Amino acid sequence: MSSKDWLEKDFYAVLGVDKSASSDDIKKAYRKLARESHPDHNPDDPVAEERFKAASEAYNVLSDDKRRREYDEMRTLFGSGAFRRNARGAGGGVPFDVSDLFGGGAGGGDRRFGGFNPSDLFGSMFSGGGGGGPARPRGPARGRDVEAEVALDFPDAVRGVTLPLTLRAPGVCDTCHGDGAKPGTRPVTCAQCHGSGMVTRNQGSFSFAEPCRNCQGVGTIVEEKCPECRGTGGVTKTRTLNVRFPAGVADGQKIRLAGRGEPGERGGPAGDLFVHVKVRPDDLFGRSGDDLTLTVPITFAEATLGTDLRVPTLDGAVTLRVPPGTPGGRVLRARGKGVVRRDGQAGDLLVTLDVVVPARLSDEARAALEEFAANTPPAAREHLDARVRRIS
C-alpha cells in the first residue's frame, strides 16, 4: 500500500461503516464482504476479486487500533486544507503535493506502507506537532548522470581492454573549481536558512520544513559569480577518460563510472557516467555465454576416416581430433579457450563440424564414390525403408 492510499482511499466507505463504527462492527462488515466477494465463490470475476482486495486492505488498517488512529488523524489533517501552498509563492492556491512529502513511497520506512511509516509523520516531518528536530541540511544538488556509447571489437570484448573515451559534456569549471564564485571570493552562508538549505513555514498550529527559496536549498549564496560558469560551478567542455572494459563484457552491457558524470551545482556531488557497450560481430567467432562458438568445414573423407583438425582460437591455434565416422553437426570442445570469467576460470571453444558435399566431381572421384556406394552396407537405411513399405 502506498502512502497516498492513506489520503485518497476512504476505508470506511469500502467496508460500508461509519467512522464511529466499533471494532466489532468493522469485523462483521469485513466478513460479510469477504464471503460475498471471495474469489473461490466468484471464479473468473475480476470485479469481485477487486472488491475482495479492497475490503482486505481496508480491514488491515481499520482493525488495528494504532493504525486506525493514525489513518484518522492524517485524513483529518489533510482534509482540512491545512497544508496548501501557492504556486510560485503567490496566488492560486493548489493542493500540497503528497509525493513531495512522502517521496513517492521510495526508500526507508515501513514496507507495509510502501516505504512510508505513518507513526513518523508528526515526529519527522513537522516541528511543533509532537517531536521533531532541526531540519536536515539539504546542500547542493547532485549532478545528473551522463550516458555514452562505445563500440568494441569482438576480441577486445572477450579479453578486456582500456580505451580513451572523449566526451563533450558538463564538467567542473576550471576557473572556480566548482563553487560558482568569482576567483578570490567564496560563497557566503545563506542568512535565511543559516546554511541548512531548509526553512520552516508555519501553517496554523503546525509547521513544516521546505527548501530555502533564498538559496534554492543549497545553503550558500554566490554574491560575485564566476565569469566562466556564471555561478553554476560547471561548464560544457571536452574531456577524455580512460575506461577499463573488463574481460567478457557483453553486447548491450552498461559500464558505470561513479562520479564521472555531470558535476553537481556549486560543488555538489557529481552524477555517474554510464557507458553502453556495443560489440562488433566477428567474421569467425560467435559467443554463447562464456563459451565461444566456431563452425569449421570438413570433407566427407575427413568425417569418414577421421583426422587431426587445426582450428583457430583468439590466442592462436589448437589441434582437435575428429574421430572416424563423425557425422555433420557434431560439436568438439576446446577447453579453456572461451571467455575468462570473474573467478579466473575460462569458458570453452565449441567447434561445430560442417561436412561439405562437393558440387562437382572429377570422373575418377565419381567412379571411386560409386564403387564406395556399391560396397557400403545398406543397414543405415533398413529401418527407414521398412517404414516406407508399411505406409505403401
TrEMBL record:
Bound cofactor: record note = Binds 2 Zn(2+) ions per monomer.
Pfam families per the UniProt record, alphabetical: DnaJ, DnaJ_C, DnaJ_CXXCXGXG
* Residues noted as binding Zn(2+) 2 in the record, renumbered to the chain: C190, C193, C212, C215
Compartment(s) of residence: Cytoplasm
Q: Name one GO molecular function term.
A: unfolded protein binding
Limits of the J domain: 10-75
PROSITE patterns assigned: DNAJ_1, DNAJ_2, ZF_CR
Residue stretches of each CXXCXGXG motif repeat: 173-180, 190-197, 212-219, 226-233
Q: Where are the zinc fingers (CR-type)?
A: 160-238
Q: Name a single GO cellular component.
A: cytoplasm
Q: Which residues belong to any copy of the CR-type domain?
A: 160-238
Which stretches are annotated as coiled coil?
A: none
Instruction: Report whether Protein biosynthesis shows up as a keyword of the record.
Output: no
Q: Which cofactor does it need?
A: Zn(2+)
- InterPro entries (alphabetical): DnaJ, DnaJ_C, DnaJ_domain, DnaJ_domain_CS, HSP40/DnaJ_pept-bd, HSP_DnaJ_Cys-rich_dom, HSP_DnaJ_Cys-rich_dom_sf, J_dom_sf
| Matching Gene3D superfamilies | DnaJ domain, Heat shock protein DnaJ, cysteine-rich domain, Urease metallochaperone UreE, N-terminal domain
GO term, biological process aspect, one: response to heat
Supply the alphabetized keyword list. Answer: Chaperone, Cytoplasm, DNA replication, Metal-binding, Repeat, Stress response, Zinc, Zinc-finger
Residue positions annotated to bind Zn(2+) 1 are C173, C176, C226, C229
Its annotated function is as follows: Participates actively in the response to hyperosmotic and heat shock by preventing the aggregation of stress-denatured proteins and by disaggregating proteins, also in an autonomous, DnaK-independent fashion. Unfolded proteins bind initially to DnaJ; upon interaction with the DnaJ-bound protein, DnaK hydrolyzes its bound ATP, resulting in the formation of a stable complex. GrpE releases ADP from DnaK; ATP binding to DnaK triggers the release of the substrate protein, thus completing the reaction cycle.
Describe the subunit structure.
Answer: Homodimer.
Q: Which family does it belong to?
A: Belongs to the DnaJ family.
What protein is this chain from?
Chaperone protein DnaJ
Q: Which organism is it from?
A: Micromonospora echinospora
